[in-house]
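Regression test attached.
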Amino acid sequence: MTAGSHAIKAEVATRSKLRRRHSLSDMTSDAVLVLLLLGFVAPIVWMIILAFQSDRAIISMFWEIDLTLDNVASILSPAEPFRAQLVNSIIVVTGTVVLCGAASTLAAYSLSKLRLSGWLNAAVNVSCAVVPLLPPMALVPGFYVTLIQTGLLGSLTGLVILNTILNLPFATLLMKIGFDDIPPALQEAASIDGASEARTFWMIMLPLSMPSLITSSLFTAIMTWNEFLMGLTMTSGGTTSPLSVGIASLVQPYEVRWGQLAAAGSLAVVPIMIASVVASKRIIAGMTRGAVK
Amino acid sequence: MKSLFRQRSGVFSKITTVPFLLLVIGVGGYSWAQVIVMAFSRLRIEAGQFVWSPAGFDNFRDILANDVALYSVAVTTIFVIATVWLSVLLGLLLALLVQRSKRFNRLAQVVLLWPAMVAPVVVSLIWLLILSPNIGVLNKLLDTFMLPTQDWLGMEVGAIVAIVIVDVWHWTPVAFLMLYTALCAVDEEAVEAARCDGANEWQVIRYVKIPMLMPAILGTIFIRAVMGVKAFDEMYLLTAGGPNNATTLVSLHIRDVFFDQLNYGYGSAFSVLIVLLMSLIIALVLTVRTLRHSRFFMREVQE
């Protein structure tokens, strides 16, 4: 492209910017946007406010403000199963991130950089395409029977395995996109220098794929932390269940402690909100890249 | 570019796929095979062990005779159509607004992540705190402005509207992100060219941006539709399928028959039917797409 056309383009751009800056329509569109954003944020903020309100103020018909830390304190007291559930969730998330990260990295590496036999390649590709389309609920009956047969029903190991299966296809896809970006010349160079395939992977490819591994692990962690269905159907509740199931069990048919409920929900949400502020670029990239391909 | 060195394949390349295949095909495939066997069996639990006996197509016959099962397919279809359209339209509007906005561009992208990142269980909790007829903030607001209060969760149509609103709130951000990414990739020169030709903002959106976004919009519709069929968590807590089964989506029906009525064969048979139905629809969509592509191609060739 010539310098002249650049200048024309730049001129057009500034002119249209000037025109737009003065227009009223920019302000109206910003106003609509802010209103919509409020609609998306206000419900979350309201829950966090209720977490610090007394039950009396929540039930009241009027707009009362009665700030208290009782809800958070009572939910974290040793008498409640909440602390055990928090630990369960952390264990399941850690286990799933490690298992899913290892399995997806290895599979993605061979898909992207190694010559696989045709049917192995097809098996991995087809499962990556099919598993995300299946409703998890349709798999629950089968998982339930399999876990009974292996004696893993109600155990955290069982939850780690099921969460890994549900997250593996997407994680493998993200990792494969990451490995595809690494130039094959590096692999050739290592191979010429006499490194074995395993050594090439471990010393060169794995460190280079770290950004994708972090993104995919972040996704796996969030999905597992939020997972509810498997926790609900594969554990017997109480101190054996993960946090999400514990929160749901606070909604009782007879008496609901609304303040505690809001506090538990807030404790589950705040880490995710912080993570999404810190790593928003990564999350957006992962979501859009994985979904588009 | 494909590497020339790929032909040397050692033991390592064979081992690398083992964990993946063991988990997904081994455990996942084995579990799915169990679902299929169960679908054709009658199961009882004796002394903590399953006792299987063959049942032929009995379970499938039971499904066709069950009003709740048929209703759940219908209400899921309505739910998917409503939530897909609303979330894609709202996501498109947000994408266009965010791209225009200089001041709120960055903020909007972070803030809009939140609903999608929140645990579905917490989403239903958040909306319970809003919609509850007793303590919900919506009724407090309505009361403050002297308007009649609502009890949507207690009414059949109201409950369906409520779960649609909750799902749209929860997943519009995903539609927004996908459409916004595609919008940022739209060629600026085409937009500027249209502006120079005197197109106003609305014409630029209608005749330049939306046609160029079409592949992304179709992709978003597909992904949102699959998510709609999967929906479970939000409704389980918010309405538990009620009132009078009005919000019993297919996944809630499977959980109910499998874990509450302990009708294992029927629950599995329903799972198999849903997966078959989904595969059929996806196959249909893919065929239509391929046909339209080839027709488009033919027209190109003729011209």
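Expected vs. actual: identical. Chain A has two domains: 3-73, 75-292.
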